[in-house]
Specification:
alpha/beta, five-stranded parallel sheet
Length: 150
């Protein structure tokens, strides 16, 4: 699986750890920055990852900023993106199981590295349940088309 990953300065250290973990278990990781802990603007990196997911250049994405909030707000502006802020194992599982989330957002100042690695593991190892949730995703897609196609 090809995965895009991006962070701002507050998520840089955790991005490096998560990226290394994903590569070690066999994922193709596309690092979209930032490249250091020097202050940057999170929308630039959220845009890059969300665009890659939206256009199908990668299957999934991970975004990490201080809280994960800003990244998730930006990412969800893109068509075909379902970005979920998950700072615990339950929301990571449910974001995939019920919402088929394709971008995982994590707060680098909220979640420790061990928990973050568990969240990523759960998120990548949980499949979309389908069933009644397909109808709900179709409704989300209809809303998205109405709003974005204006």
């Amino acid at each position: 699986m090809k995965v895009a990953i991006g962070s701002d300065h507050a998520g840089f250290e955790l991005k490096e750890i998560v990226s290394h973990m994903l590569k070690n278990i066999g994922y193709e990781v596309v690092d979209m920055g930032t490249g250091s802990s020097c202050s940057v603007d999170y929308p630039d990196y959220a845009e890059a990852v969300a665009k890659a997911v939206s256009e199908g250049a990668v299957e999934r994405g991970i975004l990490i900023c201080g809280t994960g909030i800003g990244m998730s707000i930006v990412a969800n502006k893109f068509k075909n993106v379902r970005a979920a802020l998950c700072n615990d194992l339950f929301t990571a599982k449910m974001s995939r199981l019920h919402n088929d989330a394709n971008i995982l957002c994590i707060g680098g100042r909220v979640v420790g590295k061990d928990l973050a690695m568990e969240i990523v593991n759960v998120w990548f190892n949980t499949s979309f349940e389908g069933g009644r949730h397909i109808r709900r995703l179709e409704k989300i897609n209809l809303i998205e088309r109405k709003v974005l196609d204006k």
